[in-house]
């Protein structure tokens, strides 16, 4: 039960902790919860320290049990080692759900706590928390971050009319869900076309979550995007552009980070892009279109999850499809997904697919 609560705490911080993973902690003594903690914005302080800091009378911590969704760290990074405080305040037990597969920790936290007489047990809680932590492990160890694609289309899978009119396809509530998704990811990735045509602000304006608009990555092969778009005027947003240009006016891009890929002219290698984003400490990427980027991610089997919002509207064959040509001729070559969930959202349907 306590680990389940710890998971709830970790869930609070999903999308806010990059480059660190979201961790949740519950501190218990004699069947009573003393404190709760979760990894704070930007990854500091760690969940254990957040939980400990909320117990005013530190002597209460002596003999208590800490439930953590991840092994407490033993290394000194941006934050001091969590185990130092666990030892200092004389915890009796630490229950973890998983070892931290970050090579800097990887069982060392468990070993050091045990060497100081603290009992450490691993309660392999359920697949849910493993899936949760695995996103971080895959990203840091294999440079394979979690890629979630959001599509807002008509019932016949179109994202715009033939003259590229797309406002609005889905309803207000679906668009609010879209904003919530932004808050639960470490960054947003979009193609140049989306910025140019939709002129989105790509932020989360939901009340109480307006501090959780993630950093933005744009693919703009030839750096042809006009800097008059709305997102370049937003305050406090970190924006990076992947491009493939050797000649451009650097001064124009004052606050924007430019990342040049030395690919063939006119092409950006999406595999490289995803790896580079992961290498920068972003483990959950939300892709918000358009069809070019969605198609190339699908082709490369890089999509882990799709949130597909489908309005009760039909545009017809000349509209622009959510996904363009994949050149698939046989059914055994189609891209397969599992339908994880499906819900009605006003007059739209939200289907959640996971990697098949
Ligand atoms: C914890 N509790 O809440 C989190 C942990 O650079 P640092 O010092 O912030 O350390 C980052 C590493 O710590 C990160 O890569 C991951 O292994 C672990 N994250 N550890 O004890 C936490 N978020
Ligand atoms: Zn720590």
Q: What molecules are bound to this protein?
A: ligand AOF, zinc ion
Tell me the helix content. 10-25%
Number of strands: 16
* H/E topology pattern: HEEHEHEHEHEEHEHEEEHEHEEEE
Major sheet details: 9 strands, mixed
Kindly provide the radius of gyration, computed on alpha-carbon positions and rounded to a whole number of angstroms: 22 Å
Q: If you had to describe this structure to a student in words, what would you say it looks like?
A:
The protein is of the alpha/beta class. The chain is 24% helix and 24% strand. The protein is built from nine helices and 16 strands. It has helices spanning 2-12, 47-53, 82-88, 108-115, 127-142, 172-183, 192-198, 270-279, 291-299, and strands at residues 24-29, 32-38, 65-68, 93-96, 119-122, 146-153, 158-160, 187-191, 215-219, 239-243, 257-260, 284-287, 305-311, 320-321, 337-345, 348-355. The longest helix has 16 residues, at 127-142. The mean pLDDT is 95. It binds ligand AOF and zinc ion (ZN). Ligand AOF binds next to helix 2.
């Amino acid at each position: 039960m306590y680990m389940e609560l710890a998971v709830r705490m970790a869930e609070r911080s999903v999308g806010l902790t990059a480059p660190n993973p979201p961790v949740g902690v519950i501190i218990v003594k004699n069947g009573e919860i003393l404190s709760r903690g979760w990894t704070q914005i930007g990854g500091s302080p760690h969940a254990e320290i957040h939980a400990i800091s909320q117990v005013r009378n530190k002597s209460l911590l002596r003999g208590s049990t800490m439930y953590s969704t991840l092994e407490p760290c033993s290394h000194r990074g941006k934050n001091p080692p969590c185990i130092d405080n666990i030892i200092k305040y004389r915890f009796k037990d630490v229950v973890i759900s998983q070892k931290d597969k970050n090579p800097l920790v990887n069982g060392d936290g468990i070993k050091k706590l045990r060497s100081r007489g603290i009992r450490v047990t691993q309660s392999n809680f359920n697949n849910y928390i493993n899936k949760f932590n695995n996103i971080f492990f895959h990203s840091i160890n294999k440079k394979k971050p979690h890629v979630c694609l959001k599509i807002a289309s008509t019932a016949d899978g179109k994202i715009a009319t033939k003259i590229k009119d797309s406002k609005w396809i889905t309803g207000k509530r679906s668009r609010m869900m879209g904003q919530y998704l932004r808050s639960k990811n470490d960054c947003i990735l979009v193609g140049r076309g989306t910025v140019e045509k939709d002129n989105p602000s790509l932020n989360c304006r939901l009340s109480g979550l307006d501090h959780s608009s993630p950093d933005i990555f744009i693919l703009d092969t030839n750096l042809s995007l006009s800097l008059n778009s709305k997102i370049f005027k937003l305050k406090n947003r970190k924006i990076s552009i992947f491009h493939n240009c050797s000649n451009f006016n650097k001064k124009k891009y004052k606050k924007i980070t430019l990342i040049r890929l030395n690919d063939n002219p006119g092409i950006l290698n999406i595999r490289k892009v995803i790896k580079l984003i992961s290498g920068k400490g972003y483990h959950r990427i939300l892709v918000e279109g358009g069809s070019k980027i969605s198609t190339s991610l699908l082709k490369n089997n890089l999509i882990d999850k799709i949130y597909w919002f489908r309005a009760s509207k039909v545009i017809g064959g000349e509209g622009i499809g959510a996904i363009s040509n994949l050149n698939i001729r046989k059914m055994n070559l189609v891209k397969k997904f599992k339908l994880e969930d499906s819900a009605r959202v006003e007059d739209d349907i939200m289907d959640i697919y996971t990697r098949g």
